[in-house]
Amino acid sequence: MPDQIVVGFDLDMTLIDTAPGFRDVLAVLGAELGVDFPVAEMTSKLGPPLDLLFEPYLEADAIAAAGDRFRALYPDHAITGTPALGGAHEALAAVRRHGGRVVVVTGKYAPNAQLHLDHLALDHDLLEGWVWGVGKADVLRREGAMVYVGDHVHDVEGALAAGVLSVSVLTGGCTRAELEAAGTHAVLDSLADFPAWLDEHLLGLRLAALEADLRARGSVLVAYSGGADSAFLLAAAVRALGADNVAAATGYSHSLPMSERDPAREFAAGLGVEVLTPRTREIEREGYRANGADRCYFCKAELLDVLTPIAAEHHFAHVATGTNADDAVAGFRPGIRAADERGAIAPLRDAGLTKAQIRAASRAWGLPTWDKPAAACLSSRIAYGVEVTPHRLGRVERAEVAVRAALADRGLVNLRVRDLGDRASVEIDAALLPLDPATRAGVLDAVRGSGFGEAVVDRRGFRSGSMNEAL
């Protein structure tokens, strides 16, 4: 997976509106020094160091002492009255949502800058103060930043000197024309626009990485379930390699719902891709039938043990799975280990593409799977420790078909009928709960009619991977 993203932010007039507090400190300092500072002019383009701001109004030998006094007055006069700029918290949260680090790099005196960050609860990993212009480049390089966000032309200079993307906001005194002339890569009205910019930027980077990876592979056989991830991988492979260098392989077994098979074949056919449907016999593996916490290991092992020789026979260089970046950090995933052990590649994971990004890209590409609900194999519905058998898989599938029919007019999206051994638990979208008594009775009758002796509707609603809660 790509390295963790690091985004740097300026502080004054980027994250916080420093002007009110700055004006108040200038007024107190001016009264002490007997100097009538032009406050409005001095706060029109905040960002440069204090000595540069004081230079036109004080004797050279008085500037250093005035700066020290300004910083001493600052905590009592500037912190509580300084607000965060619109979108600041959301911008930082956007970095966190992508698993990134936030580095604040500012020309402000670091202890005072820290007071602002703490007072406004601005989430960050590192603060570096008293650095200005190209001096910021050393910090950005050291921390591995990919983007620096600021409001001033000197913030642009720092980003460019570091060799990172410069993103500028128009909340300071610099105009769009000034920022663009300085060489910034993007200009936003405010930080409120940053989350969308970051989403688009990272998606573009990761799609480019995916394409480059697939091109380098030459040819691939995609382990294809028909779900959103493997469908997207199949489409991306066709884009990168051409349909002649790509095939899909779907393992047919008792654990693959019949309802998934035709739509998957139709999608692949629309891409001009051949679909191979070998029989997999995971049910014959003792570890799979025993249904311990590592059941997925045996299932994926069977799939790859079947597909690897097929790929060789058809002259495909690699078998590729639809594992994404979220899967790689989702905790206990024994199936991923089985695939890695058998040499399967995971281009989506390696490009850093998350589930949300895969859906966003699928939608942009016009793929009908962009909003397809997650559809794990039928064995995932059977409680750990309860033996997986064709009978149990069959009745789960029948029960889900029957429940969907019973709730056909309710806008049902997510559904799982969980086989708990002695009874079934029905999980549906939480927004549909509670069901009225007549509808609830109809759902339970449908489940019992599919082969379960007892059934309940889970009051907590659908939860992906809820069987793992017992682990």
From TrEMBL:
Pfam family, one: HAD
GO MF terms held by the record: sulfurtransferase activity
InterPro entries listed in its UniProt record: HAD-like_sf (IPR036412), HAD_sf (IPR023214), LarE (IPR005232), Ni-pincer_cofactor_biosynth (IPR052188), PGP-like_dom2 (IPR023198), Rossmann-like_a/b/a_fold (IPR014729)
UniProt-recorded name of the protein: Hydrolase
Organism, as annotated: Nocardioides soli
